[in-house]
Amino acid sequence: MSEPDELFTVRTLFWLGSYQTCINEATSNKQIPASCNNERKEYLYRSFLALGQGDVVTSEIKDTPNTPTGLRSILYFAQYLEARASGADKKDLALKVMGLVGSDAGESAINKTAQVIAATVCIYEDNIKEAFSILKNGSSLEQHALLVNMYIKVDRIDLAQKQLKVMKELDEDSTMTMLTMATIYTCLGKEKATEAVYIYEELIDKYGSSSSLLNGLACGKMQIGAFDEAESSLKEALTKTPNDADTLANLITVSYHMQQPGDVINRYMSQLKSKHPNHALALSIGTFDSAFDRVASALG
């Protein structure tokens, strides 16, 4: 008989993007084995970070040799994100994160949370090759799921599907496997996107909605041409997490497809550029704006 998964609820809530509920569960008085305590703290502080409360992370996690590797990686990631948002130099902070999983990091190099965070920093730094290197021997569902997203990012949906097969062999019924399946199905045309919609709707019915789930649902709806329903999901997501970057970016996309008035689209663009200047869409918009201004200036 298998041992009970003491962190099933905390882990699932984190994966679903229900971060405040995850925090509530992780800080409840429920007794868990001491061996689970560090992992519980990892989900707790990663949830604070996902909610934009990096100050909680930096004030409570101490940068000492006695601090577990996973928690130190979260601390360094919080510092990295703060520097990235403020425009400060983040190179040294990125190197600190990478140092936890480097070849000379010893046992700490195999910490799964540290590997996921290091790979995420590599993605932010446009070094996806190094991110693949970090995760190539990954064994957790979250590591495999991040690999899937990276394969999609480089237009290798075939390799993403192979990675999903590995996840199904590990745990076909896991929430993370279902989320990853929905992500891939959204990329595979209208018929599969319909299946993705069903998955997101099933998860929402079972666990309740989150900004993350509603964004996934909206992407599936857009793929099948249901733009009005996608917009409705995104507006609901915005009430849950105001100024969320992905929600704003998806609202810009759906507004274009629905031929919304320019002032509506520009409002979403202004929010995205103001709150998330480093978001890929915000940077692209900035590049196009600069190019347009240069051409207009050259033409007098």
Give the helix/strand layout:
Layout: H1 8-15, H2 19-26, H3 37-50, H4 54-60, H5 69-86, H6 91-99, H7 112-124, H8 128-135, H9 141-153, H10 157-171, H11 175-186, H12 190-207, H13 211-223, H14 227-240, H15 245-257, H16 262-275, H17 280-298
Helix pairs in contact: 1-2, 2-3, 3-4, 3-5, 4-5, 5-6, 5-7, 7-8, 7-9, 9-10, 9-11, 10-11, 11-12, 11-13, 12-13, 13-14, 13-15, 14-15, 15-16
Descriptive keywords:
single chain, 300 residues, 17 helices, 72% helix
Structure, explained:
With 300 residues, this protein is mainly alpha-helical. It has a domain at 138-188. Helix content is 72%, strand content 0%. It has 17 helices and no strands. The chain has helices at residues 8-15, 19-26, 37-50, 54-60, 69-86, 91-99, 112-124, 128-135, 141-153, 157-171, 175-186, 190-207, 211-223, 227-240, 245-257, 262-275, 280-298. α1 (8-15) packs antiparallel against α2 and α5 (69-86) packs parallel to α7 (112-124). The radius of gyration is 20 Å and the shape is globular. The protein starts with 7 loop residues before the first helix and ends with a helix. The model has no long low-confidence stretch (mean pLDDT 91).
